[in-house]
Design goal:
By secondary structure, this protein is an alpha+beta fold. The strands form three sheets. A five-stranded mixed sheet has the order 1-2-3-4-5, covered by helices on one side. It is elongated and about 65 Å long.
């Protein structure tokens, strides 16, 4: 009788242990299935260009983002492009286009590194452990909002055509018209973060093929303003902008 009771107790203990193990296992499975996925910020790919050693993507984002948000996008692109060994990403803000995208207009740029390229200073990695170099050229949202909030006295009572952040110079460009100016000229001021006017211009208007071009330098560099986008053109680039900026971004 004693032996039978001990065997029964052992069996009950084993069943309890097995039941507990099953509960833990099922909890882990359920947790894994219900785990909230990463909230990848919205983006679109507008251009893919390849060389023998690198594939580069132009990626449009809808707002200024943190390094963490940009890395989430990079990780998603890397996962979706697993066959691409050497991947680079150019991030473009609204208003920028593939025509105007260049070294003076990217909001940020990222590049995945080969194992032989990784240095001790390369501490940034995506969720899968791949090393990435990320450079953010543009201002963060808080600094951009500080510039956009500037209200210089010279613009009081004027018709403001937009407020455009120059991410490379860390300034805001404000073109405006004076409603009592019979010449209907555009006035352009550029302010730094302290509100100091660093540039003031009254460009000369030139109309070509129905397009209003505002000459801002003696060399013939000009801007256009259309649909709340300010585009900057050098005189000698066959009508291709080197930068374009959406107002209020």
């Amino acid at each position: 009788m004693g032996s039978s009771k001990r065997n029964k107790d052992l069996t009950n203990n084993a069943m309890r242990i097995l039941s507990f193990t099953l509960i833990v296992f099922l909890s882990i499975v359920i947790w894994s299935c219900n785990k909230t996925p990463k909230n990848i910020p919205h983006y679109t790919i507008s251009k893919v260009f390849k060389t023998d050693t690198l594939t580069t993507l132009n990626v449009h984002i809808d707002r200024r983002m943190t390094a963490g948000q940009l890395m989430l996008i990079a990780g998603k692109l890397k996962t979706d492009s697993a066959a691409i060994k050497n991947l680079a990403i150019h991030y473009l803000l609204p208003g920028n286009t593939d025509l105007s995208a260049g070294d003076n207009s990217f909001y940020a740029a990222a590049r995945y590194l080969k194992d032989t390229e990784v240095k001790s200073t390369d501490s940034l990695k995506d969720d899968d452990g791949h090393s990435v170099r990320l450079k953010i050229y543009g201002l963060d949202s808080a600094k951009a909002q500080q510039l956009l909030a500037l209200q210089p006295d010279v613009t009081f009572g004027k018709n403001i055509l937009g407020r455009f952040i120059d991410d490379y110079n860390h300034t805001v460009i404000i073109p405006f018209r004076d409603p009592v100016d019979k010449k209907d000229e555009i006035f352009i001021i550029e302010l730094d973060a302290t509100g100091k006017v660093v540039s003031a211009t009254v460009p000369h208007k030139k109309v070509e093929d129905g397009v209003e071009k505002w000459l801002v330098t003696q060399n013939g560099d000009y801007i256009t303003i259309k649909d709340s986008v300010l585009a900057q053109y050098p005189e000698n680039q066959l009508g291709l902008p080197y930068n374009s900026i959406k107002s209020g971004i």
